């Protein structure tokens, strides 16, 4: 037996919790991953099937057709568009691109649970800034947390998991307050679900700034979570450098054709999002009758600030055949599903005794 006296693995990774695959509940209603409940958009399955005849070939490494289509749609140049294996993949590559020794990234907390993990993996120090009492980013505190080692600050808008948003007026002030040598990363994974006129589209409003990066995904509104395609809009300089960190061929052939086909049926995506938003408002109102302090949401999920009852409530939901996402000691995030799925969730909520 060969004995090792020290581990060749990075000791700092011990602090990251190992991924524990969720238990599968084949018949349960899954309201835990902020997916769209309507199935793939029209034309997507056919596009994937047609492209599958060529999977013995590599995909287009430059992702040219998709990047061109995105550039046309968003009014930017092709050189401003990077694509990756989901926006989380791109975020990882962006963090690698800024990960000099001592580099720090400021982000809100509670926010997307991947941020502390991705920063740790990239060897970057995560600087979490607590949300305000009403579960929103504390933008002035985030601006104050930016120091000489800060390479980037992440704004998750709408915020996962609280659904809350930062307004254009607040963000205008924030982007002015941030040193132009620091990247401002807008994570807009849920941008398509926003209905408030006060919330800016960061591509439209801020992407002319060289330090702004906007990350978006085909996983949510576009119904393609299983295919893994995300994109990032930024200055050609940032895109060029991030592209050096991107795993080659990270957007596979099927994801490329599916995402390009999805852009052709944007109207259907908008109709589905509108239906989801109607349900969101119904679920929001009904949960507020039962749980105090449920914040507004501009995404496709609702945040229940249940505190210490969060884990028990999630277990109660599982027992009733509904999977939700608990954050122990804090709250529970519930994705808006089909009307009958939401009905089941609301009945389950009504029957919970904490
Ligand atoms: C805020 C936020 N950003 C990014 C992502 C990543 O999405 P994907 O990697 O599927 O594009 C998610 C997914 O849940 C998210 O909630």
TL;DR of this structure?
The protein has 354 residues and is of the alpha/beta class. Helix content is 37%, strand content 15%.
What's the topology here?
Elements: E1 29-30, H1 44-51, H2 64-74, E2 81-84, H3 86-98, E3 104-109, H4 114-122, E4 125-130, H5 139-145, E5 150-156, H6 168-177, E6 183-187, H7 202-206, E7 212-217, E8 230-233, H8 236-245, H9 253-264, H10 266-288, E9 301-304, H11 310-319, E10 322-323, E11 325-327, E12 331-335, H12 339-350
Parallel strand pairs: 1-10, 3-4, 3-5, 5-6, 6-7
Antiparallel strand pairs: 2-8, 7-8, 9-12, 11-12
Helix pairs in contact: 1-9, 2-9, 3-4, 3-8, 10-12
Bound molecules: pyridoxal-5'-phosphate (PLP).
Architecture (CATH level 2) name of the largest domain: 3-Layer(aba) Sandwich
Class by helix and strand content? alpha/beta
Helix and strand sequence: EHHEHEHEHEHEHEEHHHEHEEEH
Give the helix proportion (percent range).
25-40%
What count of helical segments does DSSP give?
12
List low-confidence stretches.
none
Unique ligands: pyridoxal-5'-phosphate
Biggest sheet: strands, sense, closure?
A: 7 strands, mixed
CATH homologous superfamily of the largest domain - what is it?
Answer: Type I PLP-dependent aspartate aminotransferase-like (Major domain)
Order of neighbouring strands in the sheet with most strands: 2-8-7-6-5-3-4
**Number of separate strands:** 12
Domain count: the total is 2
Strand content: 15-25%
CATH class of the largest domain: Alpha Beta
Query: For the residues shown, what is the average pLDDT?
Result: 96
Can you tell me the overall shape? Answer: globular
| Topology-level CATH name of the largest domain | Aspartate Aminotransferase, domain 2
**CA-atom Rg in angstroms:** 21 Å
Distance N to C terminus: 53 Å
